[in-house]
Amino acid sequence: MAETVNFTGAVDRELLKRAKIIAAKSDTSVNALFNAELRYLVETFEAAEVSGNQNFKTLLDFSLGRIDSNVAMSTLGIDSDEDLFLVMAQAHLPLPRLPEAQTQSMVDSLHALAS
After folding, report:
1. Closest Cα to residue 35, out of 61, 4, 64?
2. pTM for the whole thing?
3. Angle subtended by helix axes 55-63 and 69-76, to nearest 10
4. pLDDT tens by residue, 68-86
5. Could you state, in order of their start, the residue ranges of all structural domains in the chain?
C-alpha cells in the first residue's frame, strides 16, 4: 500500500457540505472520495500521456474552462455538442460552468419569454 501524506487545501464551503452528504450516503469519507477521484484523474491523464493520446488533455482543458467547446470539438474531431458531452461523461469529467454573467443573461432571456 502506498504511503499517505497529509496536505492542506482549500475548498468551497458549500462544495464540502455537498461532498459530506455524498460520503455519508455512500458510507465512506470525503477523504476517500477525494482520493478516488484524484487517483482516477492522475492515472487517466498519465495513461493518455504514455500512449501519446492528447484527447484527455483536451477534455481536461475544456472541463477546466481553458478552451471553449468549439476548440475542444475541433481538436477531438467531434462535430456535435452531444458527442462532446458523451465523451466528457465517459472521461468522468464535469462540464465547465458558464460565467455567472452569461448564466444570468440566459435566465433573464427565459424570464422575458415567460412574460
Report:
1. 4
2. 0.58
3. 170
4. 899 999 999 999 999 999 9
5. 13-114
